[in-house]
Queue: 3 jobs
Job 1
Amino acid sequence: MSDPKQDSHDVVRVERDGDIAIVILNRPTRMNAVNGALRQALIDTLGALNADTGIRALVLTGAGERAFCAGQDLDEAAEVSWQQIVPWLERQRAMYQAVRDLDKPSVVAVRGVAAGAGFQVALCADFRLTTPESRWGQPEVKAGLASIVGSYLMTLHVGHTHNVQMSLSGELVSGQRAYEMGLVTALHAEADLMPAALARARTLAALPPTAVRLSKQRLRAMTQPGFDDAAVAGIRAQLECYADGEPQRVMARFLEQRNTR
């Protein structure tokens, strides 16, 4: 597997706007896909900001115009052997948990694609703002992986019919459709997206912090057992998928096609 310390500097950047932290996934040439470096940097960054008393709210976004996060980096995923599945998915789980563990309000601003791991990071946040043209989804089945953790997270936002359609088809839906389904909090024109996200964050930051923290802790407690169960079920399912060889075959074909373009 690729070294999680590789290019760890700058893969997650932080900008401050008063008591608002703007956290930027910063691998724009790879559509901000999650690799070991970005995963660990995001966990560390969110943990530090959660402990920073000068920060009252966070905005998460992605660098560039193509994606918030296009999901798992397939170069890394293609290198994973079945013996590495458990620690690899535990680190992925820790990344989602770092978003869930925030005691401060979090707003995600999505331009372009939020898919797979990026989709799930967004679903772990409190508010999701996007454009009508953005693309959202859970395409794991197309890569030979079972849709488990993402399917659970969707139960917190949409009904079973939408969940089944997105989890089993792997198809992405537009930001407009995601809003209509209940996955997205609000729609904005692209030029208005970041100003709207910052305005929402400032409004949340102005609320009494103890009440916000305790409300978030209770919301987390209500959903933690389901999340933990999904994470364990996801490990079992992906072990079986990798043992069958489907992910390896699908990703090898994709990487071969990409490298011959």
Note: The radius of gyration is 17 Å.
Job 2
Amino acid sequence: MSLFKHHARIETNALLLTIGIVVTVSVGGLVEVAPLFSIESTIERVEGVRPYSPLEQAGRDIYLREGCYNCHSQMIRPFKDEAERYGHYSLAAESKYDHPFQWGSKRTGPDLARVGGKYASDWHVRHLIDPRSVVPGSVMPGYPHLMRPLDYSDIGVRLRVLRSVGVPYNDTQIDGAAHDLEEQALADPNAAPPPVMASYPKARLGRAVESPENGPVTEMDALVAYLQVLGTMVDFTQVDPALIRR
């Protein structure tokens, strides 16, 4: 109580105030950091999380290039209102191959952590070209320029760079990146799964936009493939909450 009684003296004395701040920050830091030494990893133990396919990674690069992260986060917080709107709260494991990750608190538009499979691909196309055609009152700008051909001549190099920071792409995936990208984008979703699915399960197959036969893969195809995989890798109906953390 004496501390509160003499708070005015502390607040008007630079030295005492500095000491108080240092003590407070030190105690708070220990409370937050000390428990981390008792666990093996801060990454949850869940199945299904994989590196992005070449097409998805190309789409993610476009997502970053266009600044989509300025209005959309990919982090659902562990609160009831968030879970009811967006789904299961985000796990660190879901973003372990993201460089950089898209967690954050700034939202002008909805969180996109679980947007995969929520809408049909043609909905995403219409939304990206003219947002107000499907969401009246939206303040999102249109992105019709994404209908242009995708340049993926360096996709193998991009995967190799990601491997250097810990993403577990193997030599076969890197060397065949361009082929895998085309195979995913140009596959018939109603036919037998192509070989690319063995390396990238749950990838969305087929074009996002109608195009002439043998037409080039577009930036729109890549971005929609990325959006359609978000939140789909982990099957939370099969996850025991008690086993999520080590």
Note: The chain has a mean pLDDT of 90.
Job 3
Amino acid sequence: MSISLRKITHQVLIGNVKVGGGAPIVVQSMTNTDTANVDATVNQIIELAAAGSEMVRITVNSEEAAAAVAKIRNQLDQKGNSTPIIGDFHFNGHKLLEKYPDCAQALDKYRINPGNVGRGKSRDPQFQQMIEFACQYNKPVRIGVNGGSLDQSVLTRLLDENRSLATPEPLAAVTRKAIVLSALESAAKAEELGLGKDKIILSCKISNVQELIEIYQDLSSRCDYALHLGLTEAGMGSKGIVSSAAALSVLMQQGIGDTIRISLTPEPGSSRTQEVIVAQEILQTMGFRSFTPMVISCPGCGRTTSDYFQRLALDIQSYLRDQMPVWRTKYPGVETMEVAVMGCVVNGPGESKNANIGISLPGTGESPVAPVYEDGEKTVTLKGDRIAEEFQEIVQRYIERHYAP
């Protein structure tokens, strides 16, 4: 597979995480707890970090939330968790950073939306105030423009210019230009105020896949800032996953993007970590990074009317992901391993031979035996009622032999 060389941007250091400048694409996520609830927010940050989120954004929307930020950082540090936390500011960020210097210091990055930093005459001084705080505390800033909260002054200006054209462009095209221009003008203003390019990340989010691709292609061609990718609202379930994969894969294949977030709508009561897993799987299937051993499994057909191989594939995949927090340091390189769990003899032996380790289960009506292949060679044939347990033990032994330092 051919992957475009990633565009070298200015590298931004966020806590202990490098973004841009040739660094691997970074996965981030966001809490949905009330930030003022310190324990709940700390617990969710730890949960997201354990799943693989390398940075976590939190809402800072009130005095109570701002007062909690330093406590959240302290608790994380006490628990040995160094995950960078990002403050998400809208409307009143300038006031909160001024009143709560501990919050300004504890955050590893500020997120500012030019459309929500102030209106009319208050916009420029309030934006300036936030950038000055970033300079004072030596913090990077993501200038994040959203289609749903676009700076109306920029859009109005471009619409006025568009009306004077002999052939005016459609509103959607003008809006896309306004989104990009808002980000670029805000970044230029931040630089004028003393914030270096190595402290600036840009994002221009919208929910439409094709428009998002056009916007980032335009933005990338016009600047060398580090870029954060993601749909504003991806949606729920398979729709959100497919939309995110479609948009981000196209852009990353073109070398666009330095950090990503998958903004899934979680199902009621479900874990917030799904968006982290989806982000990792997009990067891993595209060949950009490896996070956890990949399980290759067949879809099933009339030869596999039993759900045995499906359950085994699910169990092995869950087992591998659950073990990764320990394996990540104990078995370096294990994240690149491929495990094949196949349902019958048609493609089973071939796919199993191509994986690091694989099993070809008996399909419906076939002999109840399951050959296991390690690095292309058949090593054992499993039979009986304990095929699943025995295969998991074989996987564990393979990892210990091949990935132990």
Note: The mean pLDDT is 94.
